[in-house]
Amino acid sequence: MSEPEWNSTTTPEEGSIVHVLAEDDFGQYPVPFRILFKDDRWWNAHTGEELEVF
Length: 54
Hints:
Blueprint: E1 16-18, E2 21-24, E3 27-30, E4 35-38, E5 41-44
């Protein structure tokens, strides 16, 4: 499965697996695993664990 091109501050299409850039008080960094967006939530694409987003 090819990965969709997504470069936005909006949410990706349902079912998309994407790379995410996170930001906190110390700066920006890439999340070290691919993220699945489904059911209006973010999931670790490898483990299936739902991610805490705030």
